[in-house]
Amino acid sequence: MLTNYNINYKAFTDKALLQKMGDFIKNKRLNINKTQAQLAADAGINRSTLIELESGGGANLLTFIQVMRALGQLDFLSFFEIETELSPLQLAEMQSKYKKRQRASKSIPKDDKKSDW
Description:
This protein is mainly α. The chain has helices at 14-31, 36-43, 47-54, 61-71, 88-97. It has a domain at 10-80: 434 Repressor (Amino-terminal Domain) (Orthogonal Bundle). The longest helix has 18 residues, at 14-31. It starts with 13 loop residues before the first helix and ends in a 20-residue tail after the last helix.
């Protein structure tokens, strides 16, 4: 299967994006061989809401997440993970803080200690 990675989603209208999302949901539903009524029940929504979602009608974010969960497609949420980036200075500070010892210190015999006077 060929996948087109050169799609410019910025050029899509909001309605076109909703239609693309609806097509995705319908395709996944048919691939797992579920009726609209079955998927709606699994997602905890009305069938009419699912029909609207599949046809590109507006739905709220919660409804979309419920349907994606019922389809087993929540992997898209990994896109929203926040990655913390360290500056080279922060990285160097962390490395020096947790640096492993490379040599053992010389042990001083008890007799060689200087007096306290």
